[in-house]
Amino acid sequence: MPRLANLYFKTAIIFLIIGIGIGLKMAITEDHSVIGAHAHANLLGWVTMALFGGYHALNPQKAERRLAMIQYYIYTAGVAVLVPALYLMLLGNMAMEPIVAAASIVIFLGVLLFAFIIFSAEQANATISPARSH
Ligand code: HEM
Q1: If we measure between CA atoms, which residue out of 42, 51, 47 comes closest to residue 5?
Q2: Residue 111 located in a structural domain
Q3: For residue 42, which of 69, 64, 21 has the smallest C-alpha distance?
Q4: Burial class (CB in 10 A: 0-12, 13-18, 19+), 134
């Protein structure tokens, strides 16, 4: 598996642990006010990052590009800031609102970069690997 695909899966599972942690906290306390932080940790973190990692695993050539690593850092930084800021905002800390807004735009930028990666062609000078015997 390409290094970046592995990195995306490692990051994704951390967000699933955080997301489930928030879910369990909601269930135990019967206070569901942080539902948005739970849903976004799980969906932008675990689910979307695992999909990005899966795409890179299937397209190892694209995973080697510098742009793919830049996309990882931008998207991951956005989610890593959004989840705690949204959590605090939903608990009533409205000073977090501009941070949530800024992180949302960073995440969107990361998604647009991933769209660019998906639509871009594979490298033209790729060498054709010999057929496998198994
Ligand atoms: C042990 C694991 C989990 C626990 C304990 C848990 C717990 C919860 C709780 C207590 C709520 C609030 C329900 C409500 O107020 O109506 C909730 C909502 C939600 N959860 Fe989870 N959850 C878990 C896993 C997940 C996962 C893996 C995902 C996504 C991949 C997810 C996505 C969502 C979403 C999208 C909502 C909002 C649903 C809505 O507003 O209708 N949850 N969860």
Answers
A1: 51
A2: yes
A3: 21
A4: exposed
- The residue whose two tokens read 């906290």 is 25
Residues 8 and 18: their CA atoms lie apart, in Å, by 15
The pTM for the full model equals 0.91
Distance 117 CA to ligand 1 centre (A): 31
- Is residue 32 one of the residues assigned to a domain? yes
3-state helix, strand, coil in the chain (%, to 5): 80, 0, 20
- The range of the structural domain enclosing residue 55 comes to 3-119
Which pLDDT band holds residue 128 (cuts at 50, 70, 90)?
low
Quote the CA–CA distance of 12 and 80 in Å, as a whole number.
11
Q: Which of 15, 38, 46, 90 to mutate to test the pocket of ligand 1 (most atoms within 8 A of CB)?
A: 38
Domain count, the chain: 1
Cite the DSSP H helix spans in the chain. Answer: 3-29, 35-40, 48-58, 60-63, 66-90, 97-119
Single-letter residue type at 53: G
